[in-house]
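FYI - complex with iron/sulfur cluster, inputs then prediction.
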Amino acid sequence: MTDFSKVSSALEKKGFKVSVFSSGSDAVSYLSETIREKTVGFGGTKTAEELGLYETLDKFNYMVWHWKAADYENLTPEDTAGKKKIHEARNAAMHTDVYICSANALSEDGVIVNIDGAGNRLSSTLWGHKKVIFIIGRNKIVPTYEDAVWRARNVAAPLRARSLHKNTPCAKGELKCCDCSSPERICRGMATIWYPMQKQEFEIVLIDEDLGM
Ligand code: SF4
C-alpha cells in the first residue's frame, strides 16, 4: 500500500478532511454511503469516469455532469444542440450541494493544482457548493508544488488534449507542453488550492490506484 501519511497529515493540518482507500471500489462504496439525496455536480474527471462513480451515485442522488449531457469527447463544432446541452449542464453543476472532481496534481505538502479550459471546474472548486470532493489516485501525488505544476502542464493537460483530439502540439507530437497559442488550447487557467476555501467544506479522497490523467 502506498504510504499516504505525509500528504494526509499535511492536508489535515490545513483543515481538509482526508479519506484514504486501498481501492477505487472501496472509495465508491464509501461515497455512495455518505452522499444521499443530494444534488451532485461533476467536473471533467476521468478518475470518476474510470470508477463508474456517476452511475453509482445516480441511484441515490440528483446528478449533473456535462460529460453525460452529450457525446462530449466527440462533439463536432457543428453540433449546436450538443454544445447547448453541455453549456446548460455546466451551469447547473455550479449550483449543486456537492461538487466532485479530481486534481491534475497534489503535492506532498498538500497543495492541489488544476488546469481548466472552460473554467467551470476551477470555479466550482473555489466557490458555490456546500461541499467539494477531490478524488485523487496515487499517480497524481508528487513531492513539491513545482512538481505539481509541472505535472499538470506536461502530463495531465497534454494527455487530455490528446484524448479530445485537439489540434495542439502536445496532442500530436511529444507529450509535453510548449505553451502553445493554438485556438484549441485547453489550458486557459490554473487554480492552486493551498487551504480549503472559507465557505466550502473540502474532502480529499486518496486512492491507492493509478486513476485519471
Ligand atoms: S498550453 Fe497548449 S501545448 Fe501546452 S498542454 Fe496546453 S494545449 Fe498542450
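Residues 157 and 187 are 7 Å apart (CA to CA). The beta strands are 17-21, 39-42, 62-65, 98-101, 105-107, 112-116, 131-137, 141-142, 189-193, 201-207.
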